Each structure stands twice: as C-alpha cells, then as structure tokens.
Automatic annotation (TrEMBL):
Residues 5-230 form the Four-carbon acid sugar kinase N-terminal domain. Keywords: ATP-binding, Carbohydrate metabolism, Kinase, Nucleotide-binding, Transferase. SUPFAM superfamilies: YgbK-like. Signal peptide: none annotated. Belongs to the four-carbon acid sugar kinase family. InterPro entries: 4-carb_acid_sugar_kinase_N, 4-carb_acid_sugar_kinase_N_sf, NBD_C, NBD_C_sf, OtnK. This is 3-oxo-tetronate kinase. It catalyses: 3-dehydro-D-erythronate + ATP = 3-dehydro-4-O-phospho-D-erythronate + ADP + H(+); 3-dehydro-L-erythronate + ATP = 3-dehydro-4-O-phospho-L-erythronate + ADP + H(+). Its EC number is 2.7.1.217.
Length: 420
C-alpha cells in the first residue's frame, strides 16, 4: 500500500516532532534520514517523514534537497505533502522557509499554501500573524539569541515576505473561530487576491483542526508540527486511514544510557543545570579548546568510561558565553566544531555499549544521527509533547532527539526513566 502523507522536515528533531504528532493519532509513521535511494524499499507506513538538515544551509541547497525529497515521496505514492519547519519559525532573511515553500508549490503546481508554526501545547501560538512563545513575542523570547537563527521580529507576515517572492497574506483567528466553511471561504478569497502564502493564526488545537480540514484538498501544507494533529482525522474520514492503536509501540532495549546536549536554548540550559544540580555526572565540552585542537571528544569518552551512572556530555552554554565563543571563532565554525565533537562522542558511546541515547538540539541531533549511520527511525510514544523515543530501524538503539526548546526541566531523567 502506498503512503498517504509525505513530510519534508528541515531538521531531525523537527522530523521526530511531526512524526510523533502523527503517530499519536494512530498513523504509522517512519522517519527516514535524508532522501532515500530511488530503489530503496518503501517503508510499510501511512506517513513518511524525510528528515533533512536544511534549516540553515544556503537557500539553493535547501531547495534542491527539498525537491529531491518531494520527488521521492511522490514516487512513494504520497497523496498530500507537508513542509515541516520550526514552531519558532527558525530562519534568516535569506530563507529557508520562503524559498523551500515556493519551490515545493511550484513543483506541485500549487497556487496557495498556509504557513503556520503554531504548537499551542508547547506554548507556540500565532495571533494576528504574530508568533508568541508562552506569553512573550517571539522576538522577546530566548529565540532572540539563538546561535544560528536569531529571531528578531515576531510578525510572521513580515518575516515570511522578506523570504518569499509571491505575496504573503494573513488568515486570522476570528475567521478560524467562525469554523470550517468561513475558513475555506477566506482561503478562496486570499487565492483570488493572488496571495500565495498565508500566515495562519492558531491559538489552540481547535484552530489547528480547522486548518487541517480547510487544507485537506491542497497539495501542500507548510507548518510546524501542530497542524499535523488534525490530519489523521481528515484521512480517516476519507477512508484512506484506519488509525492503529499500536502505532507507537517500540521494543525495550537494555544497555547503557547517556545524554548529549549541543542546544543552547533557554529550556536546554535549564535542563542541563537541573541535571548537574542533582549531582548527576556531567562533562562540559569547551568550544575554544576544540578550536585549539585539543581532543575533547577523547577526553569526554575517557571520563564517561569511568562513570557508573548515565552521563551528560554537553556544550550547552548561556547566550553571553555562546556569543563570546562565536566572536572568537565565527558562528559557523563554532557550531561545526561542537557538532563534530558531539557526533564523535556519540560514536564512541555507542561503540562502548550505550543503547539509549538522548540528544538535545536539532543541528546536534542531525550531526549525531548521521555519524551513527542511522538510516531510519521508528517512532514511539512521546516523553514530553513533541519528543518521542525512537528506534534506529534494524538496530538495538533507542534515540530521543529533543528539539532545543522542548521538554520539561527534568526531561533528561524523565526520558531515561521511561526506558530504564
Ligand atoms: N558553547 C557553544 N558555543 C558556540 N556554539 C555552540 C555551543 N554549544 C553548542 N553550539 C552550537 O549551537 C548550535 C545549536 O543548535 P541546535 O543543536 O540546533 O540546538 P537548538 O535545537 O537549540 O536550536 C549547534 O550548531 C551547536 O554546535
Ligand atoms: O517545531 C519545533 O519547535 C521543533 O520541532 C523544531 O523544529 C525544533 O528545532 P530545534 O529547536 O533546532 O531542535
């Protein structure tokens, strides 16, 4: 049987987030790492999420990879497509949300798509086109000082218009509140006005469900993971999907456990601090030492081998420390040095018997998963909203890829506790 939904995700944690949303509602979902070979076996699933690492690459590269993912998903028989980006709309004036969305639309012959990063369960809401993180505007939140994609404007219409060639409009909360018919009519009016991408408000899950239904006949949805919450219901109503209550089952896997953290988000900083304050073992990766050529990965692995309990190895640092490192090394070099180090540590840990690994940070997870040679992930139950345990397919290895800003303060211990 061919798949129903084909998702193109711009980073690896974002991919597990949207996959988790689909699995939760009974859609059997597989996440593949990168675009599979043309002759690769088709996963037995209702939805396939292609995880790219295209959020911060040059826009033309992100477009090319996303189009390759689209072609593969089309060949796999997908009936609808979904471009998943971050619930905090992580991007730069050069992209990559606008260019990728427009390229996918062109390839699908679509004249309209919504753009909605809302994920109310995790505090991301869109109101009058402005993105809130909890009670703060995006631009007042910790995303202001993100190492790679600082978000300085909460007005998504402005942010997206700077990245897009076609006109960007707004689909407002008061239309959604009037229900499906009103939303469909507004979409028709926006299309008639020539709007090609419309930022959609959503302040709660009901809004997301209305959006999912209103977009049921559009070839492409562009969104965070939130809108996906309403899709299984749409597909079930069409008779395409029989929800599977076992969709989130993973085997239990014994062996050592560890946590790697390269995210510098507010949430991850608090999670790392809590772990250390609880007296659990932690090793700090010093980015400046990496730049001096010191073999920090080897030191971290030697230290980890001496510990009896699960370890945390982290580069996570407060915004001022990150800025100081970036001033010394440059943003890209600092990021790459840290990612490369944590990826090597992951390889060493797995070689040393670690079978349950939590990784914090999207780019970091991308580097780790690639270094471990993982090709696809089966998605399990969520630990906290948006972060499921996953199993590297065909391997005795469980991975929890945590989006930087997701998870409660005790996330690391909670995650490990669930698969102890
Ligand atoms: N101490 C540090 N100094 C500079 N850059 C860092 C430091 N720690 C981590 N980084 C880099 O910051 C980036 C964090 O991005 P990511 O892993 O996607 O986290 P998030 O999910 O919070 O966005 C990565 O490129 C990582 O290598
Ligand atoms: O939508 C989200 O917030 C996440 O799924 C996501 O994409 C997070 O990315 P990182 O913060 O870079 O992990």
């Amino acid at each position: 049987m061919s798949i129903i939904l084909g998702v193109i995700a711009d980073d690896f944690t974002g991919a597990t987030d949207v996959a988790s949303m689909l699995v939760r509602a009974g859609m059997r979902t597989v996440q593949v790492i990168g675009v599979p070979a043309a002759d690769a076996a088709l996963p037995d699933a209702d939805a396939v999420v292609v995880a790219l690492k295209s959020r911060t690459t040059p826009a033309d590269q992100a477009v090319a990879e996303s189009l390759a993912a689209l072609r593969w998903l089309q060949q796999a028989g997908a009936r609808q497509f979904y471009f998943k980006y971050c619930s905090t709309f992580d991007s730069t004036p050069a992209g990559n949300i606008g260019p990728v969305a427009e390229a996918l639309m062109a390839a699908l012959g679509a004249d309209f798509a919504i753009a909605c990063p809302a994920f109310p369960e995790n505090g991301r809401t869109v109101f009058r086109g402005h993105l809130f993180v909890g009670d703060q505007l995006l631009s007042d939140s910790g995303m202001r000082s993100h190492p790679l994609t600082p978000m300085l404007d909460a007005n998504l219409v402005t942010v997206l218009q700077a990245q897009a060639e076609g006109p960007v409009g707004l689909l407002r909360y008061d239309t959604l509140a009037r229900g499906l018919q009103a939303t469909r009519e507004r979409i028709a009016a926006l299309r008639a006005e020539g709007v090609r991408l419309a930022v959609a408000d959503a302040v709660n899950n009901d809004d997301l469900r209305v959006l999912a239904q209103a977009c049921a006949d559009l070839p492409l949805i562009t969104a965070g993971s939130g809108v996906a919450l309403g899709l299984p219901e749409v597909y079930a109503a069409r008779g395409w999907l029989r929800p599977d209550a076992q969709a989130a089952q993973l085997p239990s896997i014994g062996g050592k456990a560890a946590v790697l953290s390269g995210s510098c988000s507010t949430a991850t900083n608090a999670q790392v601090q809590q772990w250390l304050e609880a007296g659990k073992p932690g090793f700090r990766v010093d980015a400046l030492a990496l730049a001096e050529g010191i073999d920090v990965a080897a030191a971290a692995l030697a230290w980890a081998a001496q510990q009896q309990e699960p370890v945390l190895i982290y580069a996570t640092a407060a915004p001022q420390q990150v800025q100081a490192v970036q001033a010394a090394l440059g943003v890209e070099r600092a990021g790459q040095l840290v990612e490369h180090c944590l990826a090597r540590v992951a390889q060493g840990l797995v070689e040393g018997g670690v079978r349950r690994l939590v990784v914090a940070g999207g780019e970091t997870s991308g580097a780790v998963v690639q270094a471990l040679g993982v090709q696809s992930l089966r998605i399990g139950a969520p630990i906290d909203p948006g972060v499921p345990w996953t199993q590297a397919q065909g391997r005795q290895l469980l991975l929890a890829l945590k989006s930087g800003n997701f998870g409660g303060i005790d996330f690391f211990a909670k995650a490990l506790g669930q698969v102890a």
